[in-house]
């Protein structure tokens, strides 16, 4: 599972695995598993943040483009209104009296972008109003042109409202995701990495203590062998009887031999 770690700090654990024995590696296993989970979470959140940022930039350019186009559409719409009022007179009261229901309604849906829910508004044309007979006495063409211009302006306003609402929601989601990414990268993962480093240092210290202890035992054995050799040389120099050489050190003797001073004669094997 260590091969699946993709971040640099997680790869350090994989590099340490080659220098640790099995017991040392098992001590680091819980922290390494936590580091793996947080590293994978960091990678997923990083990809989500990149996707949200890309959508954020595209939406920002789309908002700017829509605003630039809407300024011209608004100018054309109000200019056509002035032309219609000049040709047909003041027809506002007729329009208000003829309208009973909304001709265009809004439909709200949710767009999913990398796990983020963005509201999207779309216009739905229910039915044509009953104001088609306005301007029969004069200026009907100008009124119809004014109606179409304002219909285009209304669609542009709906599109702009949808983009700006999604932009605000996307901006908040991007901030939350970036905070999580920074928390994992700068707080959580370094903390677990320090825990693993501490475990490795302690295990290395224990290993060095064992090595020193073994070297001390070996030095004691060598010193004991030298003392035995010196005693043997002293006996040879004095002409005394030399005992049989013992090649087994006291530390290597069988402990159970003290309880069996002589072999059992009845035992034939």
TrEMBL record:
Keywords associated with the record: Ion transport, Transport
Entry keyword annotation includes Transport: yes
The GO terms describing molecular function are: proton-transporting ATPase activity, rotational mechanism
Q: Name one Pfam family in it.
A: ATP-synt_D
| Source domain of life | Eukaryota
User: Which InterPro entries does the record match to this protein?
Assistant: V_ATPase_D
User: Which protein family is it in?
Assistant: Belongs to the V-ATPase D subunit family.
Protein name (database record): V-type proton ATPase subunit D
Q: Which species?
A: Aphanomyces astaci (Crayfish plague agent)
């Amino acid at each position: 599972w260590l091969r699946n770690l993709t971040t640099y700090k997680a790869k350090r654990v994989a590099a340490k695995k080659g220098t640790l024995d099995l017991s040392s590696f098992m001590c680091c296993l819980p922290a390494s598993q936590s580091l793996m989970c947080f590293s994978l979470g960091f990678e997923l959140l990083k990809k989500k943040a990149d996707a949200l940022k890309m959508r954020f930039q595209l939406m920002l350019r789309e908002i700017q483009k829509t605003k630039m186009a809407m300024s011209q559409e608004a100018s054309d719409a109000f200019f056509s209104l002035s032309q219609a009022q000049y040709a047909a007179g003041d027809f506002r009261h007729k329009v208000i009296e003829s309208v009973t229901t909304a001709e265009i309604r809004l439909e709200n849906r949710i767009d999913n972008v990398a796990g983020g829910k963005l509201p999207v508004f779309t216009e739905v044309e229910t039915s044509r109003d009953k104001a088609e007979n306005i301007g029969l006495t004069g200026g009907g063409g100008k009124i119809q042109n004014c109606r179409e211009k304002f219909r285009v302006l209304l669609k542009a306003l709906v599109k702009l409202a949808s983009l700006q609402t999604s932009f605000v929601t996307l901006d908040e989601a991007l901030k939350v995701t970036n905070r999580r990414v920074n928390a994992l990268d700068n707080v959580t993962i370094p903390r677990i990495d320090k825990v693993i480093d501490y475990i490795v240092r302690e295990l290395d210290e224990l290993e060095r203590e064992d090595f020193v202890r073994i070297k001390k035992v070996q030095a004691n054995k060598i010193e004991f062998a030298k003392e035995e050799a010196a005693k043997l040389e002293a006996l040879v120099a004095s002409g005394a009887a030399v005992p049989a050489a013992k090649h087994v050190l006291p530390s290597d003797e069988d402990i159970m031999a003290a309880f069996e001073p002589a072999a059992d004669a009845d035992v034939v094997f």
